[in-house]
Input
Amino acid sequence: MLKNKGLTIFSCLVFAFLFLPLLLMAVTAFGEASTITFPIEGFTLKWFGNVFASNAFMEALKLSTVLALLATLLGLIIGIPAAYALARYTMKGKAFLKGFFLSPTIVPGIVVGYAIYQFVVVSLRMPIFESLLLGHFLVVLPYSIRIVSSSLEQFDFSIEEVAWTLGCNKWKTFFKIVIPNITSGISAAFMLSFINSFNNIPVSMFLSGPGVSTLPTALMNHIEYNYDPTVSAISVLLMLATIAIMFVVEKTLGIAAFTK
Amino acid sequence: MAFIQLKDIVVRYHRKQNVLKGLQLDIQKGELVSLLGPSGCGKTTTLRVMAGFIEPQEGEFHVNGKDLTKVPVHKRNFGLVFQSYALFPHLTVEDNVAFGLKLRKMAKEEIQKKVRSILEVCDLVGLEKRFPKQLSGGQRQRVALARALVIEPELLLLDEPLSNLDAKLRLHMRVEIKRIQKKLGITTIFVTHDQEECFSISDKVAVMNEGVIEQYDTPEKIYTYPKTEFVARFIGFENFICFQKQQPHCYMADNKALFITDMDIEQTTCKGTIRPDDILIKEDAEGGNVVTGTIQVRTFLGKSYQYEVKTDLGVLVVNAASERIYETGETLHLQLPANKIILV
Ligand SMILES: Nc1ncnc2c1ncn2[C@@H]1O[C@H](COP(=O)(O)OP(=O)(O)OP(=O)(O)O)[C@@H](O)[C@H]1O
Ligand SMILES: [Mg+2]
Output
């Protein structure tokens, strides 16, 4: 590999710029003072205890997890067949459809949230949880379609045809031949969808109602009135969870799954 | 009645133009038939109609007296090998081969027995646990073949199965395919655009041109007696001369010269053709079937020289051994032996 001192220093600076704030945040979670300060005084784990003791946070965590899981699953159930159809068949207006499916990644989340609020919640009187689910589903669907599509680009459809000739019908072939060959794409789509739904604020802001909020909105609400290290503690916990997920993915699929 | 019958098959893709234009083909049980033709003439399309990927707009496809035109792919029981082999990347050699059998709800022991015996036939023993990525081109090719054969297909379809292999392996594999095909007695269709490959392997050859079969015959017949100008050109004839029939076995060229031919056909106008190798170079203009001209271009071919000779019949191409070398501009007397002139 080529060595270049200037470049190395530059990368280190970028790295520091990205990670130092996270590191500082993590450190503040252990301070004894009742506001976030740096450097910290003393050492305590009570803010972590606070997180688990807080009913609001625990409820929000549960809601966010369930929501992210369901939205992701729905996104995959709809997204995988859609990506398959887009890759397999040439149809009129394919480019348009592709653009349409991907549009929510271009349209700001605020707009999606507002649109759903206007047309679904207000006019159809959909319950809070269902409308949250709908919103999150719309947010994550493009990730499924886009990631699975790019895995299908590497897929040689003649192996599907061979399976048909061997006596496998189209449905079975889809599950026995197509799916096993795009698992890395599906896992990557799962992770990205989950993380995106879990972290989403704009859509959730519009759609959460009294007593029902997702973790990020609960955090925002909390910060508005309190500036204590509970927030840092939650962040540390979330970072640990993300690192754990990434570690598992890296071990099982390789980090390349994310860049595909 | 033939085992396999393609009756007036017409296929068109999205555009109006027909890709297959009323294609007819009859194949006997156990035969190996090649579809030979230039790129884009519709060979793969014909194969895909038989496999069931394409439903023809017109015509019928019969196997053993049954009309299969509308039967879906997975109910046809045909073996298929693609140019790209199309092995299942997530399965081992063994599981690739067993895939078709497992769908047939066979007992485990029976599957194992069949897989083992086909792997032996295809010379793949010892590679059972490997994944496709870990195999050489020739080995992948044989796995694809084994996977298609193990289901005991009624018909085996091969679409240019050898074109991704190097020259030596191609030669070896075509002998292998022929051996296995004869051993199992499976009716086989072999698509290729390589004529040597096609002649060496086939019981019969169907030469295709623009969506129809121009000639369907044994390789020997096609090599020596092409029926149309297209077939003749495709298998190496050159030197096409317009003929008017004077009397049986006697034809007149445009320059009024008379040619005697062993062959004879009904039509009064036709073309006489001869391979560059079959034209003889003579010392003088004595004897019949001789034309005279001057050499325009000389090309060295290794074993021989090729001369383009300008005569009043047009330019004739002649291959001659390199013992006696002629120079450009020299006058040549060319004899077209009566038994080598083919009328199309
Ligand atoms: N899916 C398709 N859509 C539209 N046209 C097609 C399609 N497949 C093939 N064609 C056209 O049909 C004609 C015949 O194609 P086919 O693939 O059968 O040729 P081939 O004889 O197999 O040629 P090659 O030797 O190059 O494989 C070609 O002109 C091709 O452009
Ligand atoms: Mg082809």
